[in-house]
User: What shape does this take?
Amino acid sequence: MKTPYATLSRLVAVTATSLFLVACATSMTVPPGADNARTKLMQLQADPQLASRAPVEIKDAEVAVRAAEEPQADGEWARHQVLIADRKVEIARARAQTRLLEDQRAALSDQGATARLDSRTREVDASRRETAELQRQIEAKNARPTDRGLVLTLGDLLFATGRSELRDGAVRNLDQLAAFLREHPERTAIIEGHTDSVGSASSNVRLSEQRADSVKRYLVRQGVDSNRLRTTGRGQEHPVAENNTASGRQQNRRVEIIISDASRS
Assistant: This one.
């Protein structure tokens, strides 16, 4: 026979569990836009002329959309996932359209239809440019979202040990960032230099400042307005790993670029 106390205890336990599950459910959110990305992907998959022409990109988009549909406790990260999913669907569509236009152009070439062939050639070129632009956006937006904006971390491969000059051939990410900033003039960026703990604190601050300045100068040479870029040297103050191992020190030698959120600019 159950006592009133046992019944009450069970009721309290069930109620507490229910409240915990509700709290978890309400704290996990799927931001607006995930369903729109899914709809656009389904439309692409249902188009017989396009679906077969970009299977790899469509599969990549499917993975991104599924990730965007997962409830997240971090609203900023959830919105970032939706943004990436939407861009990957657009990339898949643009790539499929490019290949369709290329096939049509080849058919017109066989038929000798010069005027229509020229038109298709221009469309192919435009589609390729669109695909390249979307890819640059997706690469730039792979930066980590924070309350300060998107943070892009560049490792120590940009610089030789103890030096502040950019290495030749190590600036691909900077080229992509410069293209993104040129195409989005509403955004600004803070360039932060960081070092490991080798050497004095003052020399590390100076080195981190010089490295941040080198990155800024490179971006300016690539056409980014210097007024949109601010630099600072953090030295060894903000490590992301322990400095007592070589791999940890390598992680700490970095430049972080904080790209402003367009909605706050």
About this structure: Residues 75-111 form the longest helix (37 residues). The chain has nine helices and five strands. The chain has a mean pLDDT of 77.
